Amino acid sequence: MPAKSATALDADARVEAGEAVGPLLRGVGVLRRLTEAGGTLSPSALERVTGLARSTVDRITATLSRMGYVRLDGRDVVLTPGVMELGNAYLAALRLPALLDARADALADELDESVSLAVADLDGIRFIHQATRRRAMSVSFRIGDLLPAERTAPGPLFATEWTGPDWTRWRARRAADPTDATFPAVPARQTPTGDPTLSDPALSSPALSDSAFAERVERARREGFAVDDQLIEPGLVAVSVPVRDPGTGRLACVASVVSHTSRHSAAGLRTSLLPRLRTAVTAMESDLRTAPPPEPGPPPSGLATWTTASKHQLGRDFVESLARGLTVPAAFGEGRSALSLTEVARATGLARATARRALLTHEHLGLVRALPDRTFALTPRVLDLGFPPLSRTTLPRLAEPHLRALTDRLHEPTALAVLTADGTEIQYTAGAGTSRVLTVRITVGARLPAAATSLGRVLLADTTSPLPPPLAEVRAQGYALVDEELEAGLRSIAVPVRDRSGRAVAALNVATHAARRTPDACVREVLPALRTTADRIQRDLHTASRFTHVPSC
């Protein structure tokens, strides 16, 4: 295991003294195992990988489900976008994605290459922004992924600021984990003697030795940039430049351009991409220098007060100390990057002693660090809790479980659709069918005339005014009802699904046969459930898209 800092050792001492919240330790462990597994595990698999009793796993997952962090899908426990609230709190407090992501995205468009922003996480690097090009051969790293410093381009740059204890921790981690098994985002490397069970002999290269990394660090210190020449895996190359904090001169983050050897050699990165990367970094540093102070809204309060009612309702199946502890990260955010114990207690509504134990437990887990001024701050490790597998989601994936639930409730088929680029058609992107003999079956990808469908009319009504009277009415009432216009006997009702800006990016509908529901019944019985489902999809979309791009199809 990596060597621990003095702060972490102090936290261990306090934990050993009995101040850790055991259920919080176990609940975070469940979230981490789900994250490592890609977001889905069965309860029996969780029992196996965590070492917890099945009854404990069931209580933890029931509590996480109540919080909206997981859903129970058949025999599986599945991470939901709600858990991204934890990572969003860290990214908002950090501010770097909000200040710099537009520059990174513009550089990716200019170069037609993937661009990332990363911060240091102990002796690793963790991504906080990804602008990935959509190609058949593309980079699959996600926001929140953790990589070993020595196998990356940003790593040597961060290591230029390492102290003696940092190097000691790095060497201890290398000795304890010679194949990088604790970094699931990268392929395992070989030990110096090789391992015939591994498929890439290149990953036992001398370039991955301790001395080679030390040399790369010194080169990065001299040259002000660093290159990864296929250290993650054969074919992958990257060049990185530090983005410095204008106040301290220290590294705020590192910007990287990532490509593959069919497009650029490692040497070619220096001449073809490095100059433009440096220009973009200069602009980023200017943005940091001129950014106004954050203007946070009213501080949160009572974040954990709901847990008591849930405990009364669910009894022993609800682990209140876990739920309370997981509300602590939400106390942080933009303008609230460092909080005192009193401020955390006030934001959560917890007693000071309860808030203190939660903070000490999070510190022990590496999710929070104590600062010299007796305040606390979130660490990049918060992104370990569900963020990576959900940061590449799409709107159809977000919507699918909600569509199934609506279909189960109404016993009618449901669908999600988007408007095509020319605005003349809708394209179905997700749906849930029923077992009725007479039902609507439209496959994902199918297109229909927008003007003749309820889905299309809801989306067309969100276009620029002035609208023709029928669409103006749809906009005013917030839904569209189409009665046997597309096909005899087919009746459907639709509502919009809006993004964080309020723009309708998709529409949701329920279809039925005219013999089953009158138009009035559609408005009276179906519309409220339809709107509730749209609200749930929007809530997931707004959470997931705060710091990531969520494609509509």
Automatic annotation (TrEMBL):
Gene Ontology biological process terms, A to Z: negative regulation of DNA-templated transcription
InterPro entries, per database record: GAF-like_dom_sf, HTH_MetabolicPath_Reg, Tscrpt_reg_IclR_C, Tscrpt_reg_IclR_N, WH-like_DNA-bd_sf, WH_DNA-bd_sf
PANTHER family assigned: HELIX-TURN-HELIX TRANSCRIPTIONAL REGULATOR, ICLR FAMILY (PTHR30136), TRANSCRIPTIONAL REGULATOR (PTHR30136:SF34)
Protein name as catalogued: IclR family transcriptional regulator
Provenance organism: Streptomyces fodineus
UniProt domain IclR-ED: residue ranges: 82-290, 381-543
Record keywords: DNA-binding, Transcription, Transcription regulation
A Pfam entry, by short name: HTH_IclR
Superkingdom of the organism of origin: Bacteria
Positions with biased composition (Low complexity): 195-207
Region (Disordered): 178-207
Domain spans labelled HTH iclR-type: 21-83, 319-380
